[in-house]
């Protein structure tokens, strides 16, 4: 086996390991999505629109996912503006405290008062809304929930065939890096992970710091093709079923 072939195989194995690390988080997102869509379907069957009181039924499942999913620091449903009858916007969001307790996120989403009232432009909301696919957003400083450098994994939720919001889960970047950096460092060249926007989510390459935007190909197109490729000497390996691309530079 040639060195080039061995490197490709190793990169594929690392991409598969990254997929494995994040799939449990997306499982939590998928379960939240299923619970929310079933809840919204029951409300629609009653010929009415949902309200915040209806979303309380999601809480047992959200608490369970926080307790059982190691990487998840926060999880919930973020409603599309106008979905609910009693508030203009809402996050049914629960997160783990430093002492292990589970607590709700309480936000002022009054558009006249709050800088966070319009969350529709953030990637974790906009990407699932615009593409119909699940997404990895960040890393970014999550001023909304935790003040931590975080990733948010999300997927669209529908009600009667229309976009109703997103199911999502937060992962602290320090926890994600602890899981994936040892894998990246085993590769024969500098390596980093990027999302569909080209933002670096983790890096063992000093030329590409986590959180930075990297120049390169259309990473969303690389993810759609779902097969390894090259771009100007870089090895590009999609993490199958996870919207991240492993980028390996030559030595």
From TrEMBL:
<dbReference type="Pfam" id="PF22673">
    <property type="entry name" value="MCP-like_PDC_1"/>
</dbReference>
<protein>
    <submittedName>
        <fullName>Cache domain-containing protein</fullName>
    </submittedName>
</protein>
